């Protein structure tokens, strides 16, 4: 299980889909498990609270647990901005590997400005960076070079 985390616009979905395809693993988009109320709140430009995120994180934890029990290899995209979120989702530290996709704020802002079809507006970027607790136990990968280079770096660093 590989979980790609980071702020909106870091490339979690793009990198995750490419990585999963290359590995022949299942890709899971964490955002797909948000309750409708969370999606509506973010679409309206209102940052989520910890209380808003709790049921979403519990759903993801259950999905992770089930995948590990089945021995199903998964690449998941999930913001997991706070340490306590990552601790909750790390069902088994031996089997859950975290990759922190990061870039300078200007790079992320530029990407968000170009993104279409996502419920989270660029106006929430500041709240994402404010909530971000950079992980200590994750593989940090600078996404500035682009998705193909990021996927290659992840595969090299994780020996995949």
Automatic annotation (TrEMBL):
Keyword entries, A-Z: ATP-binding, Gluconate utilization, Kinase, Nucleotide-binding, Transferase
InterPro entries hit by this protein: P-loop_NTPase, Therm_gnt_kin
Pfam family, one: AAA_33
Pathway: Carbohydrate acid metabolism
Molecular function, one GO term: gluconokinase activity
One CC-aspect GO term: cytoplasm
Catalyzed reaction equations: D-gluconate + ATP = 6-phospho-D-gluconate + ADP + H(+)
Enzyme's top EC category: transferase
Protein name: Gluconokinase
Lineage, highest ranks first: Bacteria, Pseudomonadati, Myxococcota, Myxococcia, Myxococcales
């Amino acid at each position: 299980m590989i979980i790609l985390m980071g702020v909106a616009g870091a490339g979690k979905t793009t990198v995750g889909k490419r990585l999963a395809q290359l590995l022949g693993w299942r890709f899971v988009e964490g955002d797909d498990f948000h309750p409708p109320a969370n999606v509506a709140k973010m679409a309206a430009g209102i940052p989520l609270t910890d209380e808003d995120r709790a049921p979403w994180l519990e759903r993801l934890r259950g999905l992770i647990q089930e995948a590990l029990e089945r021995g199903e290899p998964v690449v998941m995209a999930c913001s997991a901005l706070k340490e306590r979120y990552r601790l909750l989702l790390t069902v088994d530290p031996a089997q859950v590997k975290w990759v922190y996709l990061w870039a300078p704020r200007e790079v992320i802002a530029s990407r968000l400005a170009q993104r279409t079809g996502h419920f989270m507006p660029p106006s929430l970027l500041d709240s994402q960076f404010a909530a971000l607790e950079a992980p200590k136990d994750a593989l940090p990968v600078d996404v500035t070079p682009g998705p193909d280079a990021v996927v290659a770096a992840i595969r090299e660093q994780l020996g995949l």
